[in-house]
Amino acid sequence: MLQTSARLLRLLSLLETRRDWTGADLAGRLGVTTRTVRADVGKLRDLGYPVAASPGVQGGYRLGAGAQLPPLLLDDDEAVAVAVGLRTAAGVAGIEETSVRALAKLEQVLPSRLRHRVHALQAATVAVPGTGPAVDADVLSAIASAIRAGERLRFDYTSHEGTDNRRDVEPHRLVSWGRRWYLVAWDTGRGDWRTFRVDRLTPRTPNGPRFAPREPPEGDVVRFVQRSAGAATWRYHAKVRLHASAEHVRARLPLAVDVTAEGPDRCVAEVGSDHAPMLALYLGLLEVDFEVLDAPELARELAKAGERFLRASAASSPAPR
Length: 321
Prior knowledge:
Oligomer: single chain
Radius of gyration: 27 Å
Order of helices and strands: HEHHEEHEHHEHEEEEEHEHEEHEH
Number of strands: 14
């Protein structure tokens, strides 16, 4: 059996990992009786931890929010993940300096073995500077809170064309793509799923009524964002037939809006980009045969790229001996 101090730390760690626990579950994890669990919960409360209890035969416990943030207990992998996340925080306005302060506090108490892991990851990683708009941290927090509470979100929104309107939605998920943040939500006014750029919306308070969660769009919010956001913003679109499986293309072609299998080793993909030369480059990187079905401009760019590579190959060939 754990000593009292060690058991209290273990109990606190368990309460932080799950929203609700029964007394029996906690007793089983700690190897003690439910009476001991009740006593230990009382000791945590004396230390300032807001542990709420529910009545009943089983009894339930939940670590609530207090006036001050209690210490968090992180295992090795969790501590490394938090440190790396703080080091790489980007795309959210107003938290850069805060992230540095939080990281300094965390690294001060990290064991040397974990500090070496964090530094090794940082040294081996190069971040490509982004050009996307920064998102207000308060806006992200407001959206995340509405998602967690299952409450409708009302906001003013500026569309891609620059028109302003007001939306009332059932928020489902936030998706980070590059340096842009998107909200996937059920638009109550249009009766359909929609994707919204977070940097273009301003939440209004209070939130609306609670709602019953819906099944996610297309079963995958990430693919939904890639398809809907790409289809709405890319300047050039094309359909190409690729001599590869749909799974291979989805995994390696980020510019694919939609992929339809035509067999085990062939598919048709709708692709998009801001520039036709970029489309040609990405298709070449797949290293599979393909045909352009409906985009003569892309076909011309492919011809130009092919001629350019042939000239480069001829110029780079070693002189005959």
